[in-house]
User: What shape does this take?
Amino acid sequence: MLCDSVSLQLAGAADGDIVLAPDVRRHVDECLRCQAELAQYRKLLRALTAMRDHRLFVDAGLLDEVLDAIRPPAPVHRIHRIGDRGRRAAYLAGAAAAATAAGAAGALVIASRLSGKARLAS
Assistant: This one.
């Protein structure tokens, strides 16, 4: 059994959401890598549970500091801006295309059902 296929199930097994299949459980019992990964998930779960009631109060200027740090150094300019009319036209065109596609799909379903009944009758 490959550890990669087992590792996808270990996070759910750590908190009891899923029960491992017997062959997967045997693998985890024998594989040190999977045991370590399961232990890390359990440790993370304990840490998150301990932090559940912890409230963090931050300085009022922290948001501005973070935004200043992640803003690009040069100003960003939009190349093309769609006005309200252009945006409405794009929405209407999209809705018309979706309605056309839905109508075509419905016609195909009806045609396939009718041809299936015609084959049964002959």
Notes: Residues 111 and 117 are 10 Å apart (CA to CA). The radius of gyration is 29 Å. Residues 3-58 form one domain.
